[in-house]
Design goal:
By secondary structure, the chain is mainly α. It has a domain of about 50 residues. The chain is built from 3 helices and no strands. The longest helix has 25 residues. The radius of gyration is 33 Å and the shape is elongated. The termini are far apart.
Length: about 80
Amino acid sequence: MSQYKFAEVPSNDTVASVVTLLVCAWFTAAGGAMLAEPSVEQQVRAAHRTPVVTVRQVAVMQEQQPAVRETMTVVASRGAQRVS
């Protein structure tokens, strides 16, 4: 019978360096995407799209709305029978 030989299993160092390389590549791509993305002001100026609402604009809109005060009055009659 012939001897079957298994393929060489990668060592822990190889696996660790491949994982480190993939994580570094991921963070490099994410950082590049964040740097390449235009700011909100540039996006609004660039095209006549739906305007982007910023947190400052939402705060101003909330200040312009009047305060609403609602009062609820509940009226009920109490029966003569008591629960003991």
